[in-house]
Amino acid sequence: MAPMLDVSDEVRAEIGDEETARLLNGENAPGTYDCTSCRTPGDTGQERTSTVLFVGGETAVLAFAHATCIPSQVVPVSEEQLQGAVRSISIGAEAGQQGRAYDPYGVNVAGDPGGPYPGGSQPGQGAGLDPTPRQAVLGITCGLILVEQQVHPALVVEPTGPIARVGTSGSGDDFLPLLIEQGFMPQLDLDRRPSPLHGWSVLLAMGKLHAVLQPGDGGMQPVAWWQAHQPLQVSDGWRAAAARGNEVYVYAGPAGSIGRQPREDLMRDALIRASSRGLLVAATMPLAGT
Q: Annotated region Disordered: where (predicted)?
């Protein structure tokens, strides 16, 4: 029996009609797999399954997900992250996992590509920001936040130092003005849902946090505003909440306004303090790739 696979037009365009036909006929499709979104088992013979193609600079990895978790799509990621996934393929193959990695130049490798709060801070750089003069990077923390009597997944972004505009060398901190110019809104009440930010998204792939994406120039594919040096593990509760609502609340404050807190209730208190001082902006972003 043919597998119940969904292959979007953009995935078909990347892997070609011949490989698409082999997948749909069951020749190259797995029977069972670990969903690249929720990481729970799936069965292509029993439930609709999405093909998700992660594309780097020179490598592409085809993964599988429950269609209820994520639609079939192409997800841009860094080549470094994809190479890490390809290196893990041999481990997945030894464990009996199913999947397939593709190289656009013809190499085809079998296998499966693969901190929780409060330790989830990772450095990165934001497009449009110039951290070089002060060696500042963006730290990011994953946590759950109670808003309107419901638990929601949140990311809290805070630079390690003042952020200047590109090309400037003044002593001020332009982090919040730059974000407001990008569409983030001042968050004056933690009990209210942040405003949606069109074109931005949070990339949670292979069960881990990879990046916060912003619109590319001239309608091009999204690019990373913040990107983890290594994919960041999130808690099961955070991932479940993200999959349930298919969106993430992203809060940001300038250096020293929030700090890293040992518990989620203390993080919320810190966000409230930053908000009361006018030092917090926020946005609601959809998930990309999960």
A: 108-132
Buried b or exposed e, range 19-41, using 16+ CB within 10 angstroms: bbeebbeeebbbeebbbbbbeee
pLDDT digits (tens, 9 = 90+) for 241-254: 998 889 999 999 99
Omega before 118 within 30 of 0, i.e. cis = yes
Domain range summary for the chain, segments of one domain joined by +? 5-110, 129-288
**Integer angstrom CA distances of residue 135 from 125, 131, 138, 258:** 10, 5, 10, 19
Q: Which residues pair with 208 in a beta bridge?
A: 205, 233
Distance CA(136)–CA(126), nearest Å, equals 11
pTM of the model: 0.58
Residue keyed to tokens 């972003």: 285
Query: How many other C-beta atoms are found inside a 10 Å radius of the C-beta of residue 253?
Result: 26
The fraction of the chain above a pLDDT of 70, given in percent, is 74
What are the Cα distances from residue 290, in Å, to 57, 69, 129, 212, 262? 21, 6, 27, 13, 27
SS3 of residue 21 by DSSP: helix
First to last CA, the chain: 27
SS3 60: strand
